[in-house]
Amino acid sequence: MQINGLRSLYILTADIGGSHITVGICNMETHTIMRQSLIGAEVNSGGSATEILTSWSNVFQQMLKNTNLPVSGLSVAMPGPFDYENGISYITGLNKYESLYGMDIKKFLADLLKLDPQMIRFRNDAESTIAGEVLEGAGKGYGTVMGVTLGTGFGSAFSSNKITKDINLGSEPYKDTIADDYFSTRWFIKRYNELTGIGLTGGVKELSAIAEKNVVARDIFKEYANNMADFLAKPVEQLNPEVLIICGNIAKASEFFLPYLSERLNTTTIKLAQLDENAPLIGAAAMFEDTTGLNT
């Protein structure tokens, strides 16, 4: 990989979530994010294409302005539905990034960053997160790893010998709908409203803040854990991972649901993610392993 005639170990990497973008530079030799490069910003994913792309552009440009490291390419952890090979968004019906439907995101970023489009790669966000944890986090040292990401959506991936692939459990049927509707933030909001008539403007963070003194909140976390155990029992049995990793913002409230989940899935080692926002950045950058000639 050549930038200005120089081969570089550094990859510009980004994580695009339902309400944010985080950008950094990954050292491919150490699988670490350069601390001085890390920048994040909120994004109105329900806004116009111009508004969203401007938010992204500002973060990329600020990060590159703040660092002098030569980068060889760009990797992006991106939610689906998305054409990851060609860089085209097909997100619709999910209340986020609807205005980008059909847009060539790869071309936009190539023009913005003056990069060869062949040096821009996209990876499913859940797959990226689990891949990062496998390389340098809670999954390091294990041969087989299953992971779930719990946040605005419910993501999942399985890794065998450091080859990590999205398994899309969120689209699987569960009860009266699909798993994503039960294991993402919106379930907590809906369930608390059903039981109390009160809206949760702060989502799971707000619910966890009141859980110590609120029986309804604690019961909701327990119900969440029991539902997840019921749903995950089959894929855990089929895939037989050495460890199950719990990732995402909902994992920050793990004290209220993890004990119940561990009790129900007691044949499986369960660990919390260790890398936080760095996991998807590292996992997305790992797509460049073959072209850098580096080994994991």
Descriptive overview:
With 296 residues, the protein is α/β, with parallel strands linked by helices. The protein has two domains: 2-124, Nucleotidyltransferase, domain 5, CATH 3.30.420.40; 138-274, Nucleotidyltransferase, domain 5. 36% of the residues lie in helices and 24% in strands. It is built from ten helices and 17 strands. The chain has helices at residues 49-66, 105-113, 125-136, 179-183, 185-196, 203-210, 215-239, 258-264, 278-285, 289-292, and strands at residues 2-3, 6-7, 10-16, 20-27, 32-33, 39-42, 71-78, 82-83, 88-89, 120-124, 144-150, 154-160, 163-166, 173-174, 177-178, 243-247, 270-272. Strands 3, 4, 5, 6, 7 and 10 form a six-stranded mixed β-sheet that branches. It has a five-stranded mixed β-sheet with strand order 13-12-11-16-17. A two-stranded antiparallel ribbon has the order 1-2. A hairpin with a 4-residue loop joins β4 (20-27) and β5 (32-33). α3 crosses α9 (278-285), α5 packs antiparallel against α7 and α7 runs parallel beside α8. Mean pLDDT is 91; it is low at 1-6 and 291-296.
